[in-house]
Amino acid sequence: MTVSILHFEAPMMSFGAPIVSEEGRIQPYPALSMMTGLLANALGYDRSEAEKHERLQQGLSYAVREDVPGEKIVDYQTADLGQPHLQAKGKRDSVAWTTWGHLDQRGSGSTDTTNIRHREYWADAQYAVALHVDGMSADEVREALVRPERPLFIGRKPCLPSERLFLTSVEAESLTEALQNPKTIPDGVMPRRLWRESDDGTPVTDARDWTNQIHVGERRVEEKEFP
Question: Which of 51, 134, 212, 226 is buried deepest, with most CB atoms within 10 A?
């Protein structure tokens, strides 16, 4: 099969794990939902087009290679929701800080305070992703990533890539084999780890129910030393 190779390199990138309260944790490889959202953004899908996101997610398979490990850093973020123009007139009008560009109306809570968040990032890391999408040719994947409908980012909007995400396409029997192809390894880089979907892996819940905006299901991901 033809496998598309993506190169992730950025001053900061975020492979989001489940968020608990104000703590935004990361994991060592990108989640299925993140990869789906990245490609959907490149294709110009609207957030409301849940069925298109679901079909894309169901047809997407990938493996990840860590080329340069990143340093974990924590960003301390605040938003003063106590400003007069943000004050709620009652409980039903109270607001909360969100990540989709507007204040969220909530049924309880107080806005007369500073909203605090901690967000983790990988700094100065490099990864390679072997990607295959059922129903899309490698040329279509390349076109979407080289000429995306919207600007692309790696995990969160502040995480802009240092260069184009699409690297090359290779013929391979498997995603793992594609990542072992010397053509996909930058000069001077000695890859460290690899993640792939496998029956021998650890169960993870990183698929997204795009209608209800929650993570669902289970798949197994194996981590191994490279190669």
Answer: 226
